[in-house]
Design goal:
The protein is an alpha/beta fold and 537 residues long. Among the domains are: 109 residues, Flavocytochrome C3, Chain A, domain 1 (Alpha-Beta Complex); 103 residues, Methane Monooxygenase Hydroxylase, Chain G, domain 1 (Up-down Bundle). Strands 13-12-17-16-14-15 form a six-stranded antiparallel sheet.
């Protein structure tokens, strides 16, 4: 059996490893190597109810915290599987060789993360993502050496091959040679979030959202696109926003603004039980409010922590501040503000990571089922690894008849599009991408309203009707046009959800409405169609 995995971060690596262990022949397709994936950027940790701190933590608590954090629009079946498998995943990672930080008793150490009452987040210093990617990459390379996994680096996904609601494979292009080829077999999309829609996010520019947008235009159902997480603590640099891990607050970091010449620790005053460890959407809104919508500087203060904690447990925070801010966090507070960080919405999948197209699966940030209206810190790495494994298991057990003639015809059609393609002559690709990100940031920020959203749709309509000069790059040409459709879908979902819930805050609908305790479903058949489905549908 052939299984094609698009994306080589933690979700893609997990899927490739699991599928090859089951006996599949795996093609791992990505624009770059795993060491450059967004998964490497994850600093804080991975959640599992190991209960080694004597706090009576449990899988049931992890489940409840995840549902509560997601404002009760998560897929409950998927969350149940996720939280139940979490301890086993930590054990599997240990056996593979992940160097988790240990406590004095030799157990995997656990730290506190937002939205959780218990120490539940396993970590490897402040480089958890790097440790996980390094370990899984090494394990995957063994599979490659045995011929069980074949890597295609420098290849970009172009389209799915779909016939009669079944996925027969995909078409990809080599960015260096412009070769276009078909990969037949079941497909697992592990292509990450929709970062290109917003420009300077905390995520990787390689995760541009094109695979999601193209799949959507080919009939794949999306969900909860309005749910976009702003991480409370990011710093501004020339090229992007850089994350200051939630672990800094987990270790005791405090947020403040200056009032009357002295620090005002607003989160502790407003939320005395959890303080800085409220869920991310709450902390982000708190920062926005305390700063007068960004007019006043907000600081993350870790100067009261001991030097060992800052330089060892939070070493990446220390290095980032020294390198990009010329600031020593041992002695100075860190200027921060919320930034676009994670997309809870994406390709709608069930608890088995199946999409509405037979033979097509999705895992990691590009899929939507675990996080609802707000993701808990520490659940993204867990969701990526768990999701990749579950998708692989179900892809392996799904048999689709190969239609060689249809696959060949699909490839010929894509080649004809490439051969007939010509650049536009009015607006270059960089200008178009910048305008797109300006429109999205202005309308889809932490607070939204109908007037801004409707105005954004009008601007998008003007932009998508322009000819775009993509500088001789066919992938950029197909990408930018499909991203306009995806951006419109995001905005329309935000218009249709007439309430405030988690990451989606409407200033014109400030209350949470139980009638919207549902999944927002988005379909495309030449037009964007939005509906709301019950959580068990």
């Amino acid at each position: 059996m052939n299984i094609n995995v698009v994306g080589c971060g933690l979700a893609g690596l997990s899927a490739a490893i699991k599928a090859s262990e089951l006996g599949a022949s795996v093609s791992l397709i990505s624009p770059n190597y795993s060491e450059t994936s967004q998964s490497v950027m994850a600093m804080g940790g991975i959640n599992a109810a190991l209960n080694t701190k004597g706090e009576n933590d449990s899988i049931e608590n992890h489940y409840a915290d995840t549902i509560n954090g997601g404002c009760e629009i998560n897929n409950p079946k998927a969350v149940f599987k996720l939280t139940n498998d979490a301890p086993k995943i930590i054990g599997w990672l240990e056996k593979l060789g992940v160097s988790f930080t240990r406590d004095n008793d030799g157990n995997v150490d656990l730290r506190y993360f937002g939205g959780q009452k218990y120490a539940r987040t396993a970590y490897a210093g402040a480089r958890t993502g790097k440790q996980l990617v390094t370990t899984l990459t090494s394990h995957c390379r063994k599979k490659e050496a045995r011929g069980q996994v074949k890597r295609y680096v420098g290849w970009r996904f172009l389209s799915l091959i779909i016939k009669n609601h079944q996925c027969l494979g995909l078409i990809a292009i080599n960015e260096n040679t412009s070769e276009i080829r078909a990969f037949k077999g079941n497909v697992i999309l592990a292509s990450g979030g929709l970062n290109k829609l917003f420009g300077k996010t905390s995520g990787s520019v390689l995760n541009d959202g094109y695979a999601t947008s193209k799949a959507f235009m080919q009939g794949v159902t999306l969900a909860n696109l309005e749910m976009i997480q702003f991480h409370p603590t990011t710093i501004k640099t020339t090229n992007k926003r850089i994350l200051i891990t939630e672990a800094a607050r987990g270790e005791g970091g405090k947020l403040f603004v200056n009032r009357d010449g002295k620090p005002w620790y607003f989160m502790k005053e407003w939320y005395p039980e959890f303080g800085e460890l409220m869920p991310r959407d709450v902390v982000s809104r708190g920062i926005y409010k305390a700063s007068n919508a960004g007019a006043d500087e907000v600081y993350l203060d870790i100067t009261h922590l001991d030097e060992h904690t800052i330089k060892v447990k939070l070493d990446e925070v220390y290095n980032i501040c020294m390198k990009y801010l010329n600031l020593n966090p041992i002695y100075e507070p860190i200027p921060i503000f919320p930034g676009v960080h994670y997309f809870m919405g994406g390709i709608k999948t069930d608890e088995n990571h199946k999409t509405n197209i037979e033979g097509l699966f999705a895992a990691g940030e590009c899929s939507c089922q675990y996080h609802g209206a707000n993701r808990l810190g520490g659940n993204s790495l867990l969701g990526a690894i768990h999701g990749g494994c579950i998708a692989a298991q179900n892809a392996y057990s799904t048999n689709i008849d190969t239609n060689e003639s249809f696959i060949r015809k699909s490839l010929e059609n894509e080649q004809k599009l490439f051969d007939s393609w010509r650049d536009g002559d009015e607006k270059n690709i960089v200008e178009a991408e910048n305008e797109l990100s300006d429109i999205m940031n202005a309308s889809m920020g932490m607070y939204r309203n109908f007037d801004d959203l409707d105005n954004a749709l009008q601007k998008l309509n003007v932009l998508k009707n322009m000819k775009i000069d993509s500088a001789g790059n066919y992938y950029d040409h197909v990408k930018i046009n499909s991203l306009f459709v995806l951006a419109s879908a995001c905005i329309k979902t935000a218009i249709e959800r007439k309430e405030s819930r988690g990451a989606h805050q409407r200033s014109d609908y400030p209350e949470t409405d139980e009638n919207y305790q549902k999944t927002t479903c988005i379909n495309f058949d030449g037009q964007i169609k939005i509906s709301f489905e019950g959580l068990d549908d």
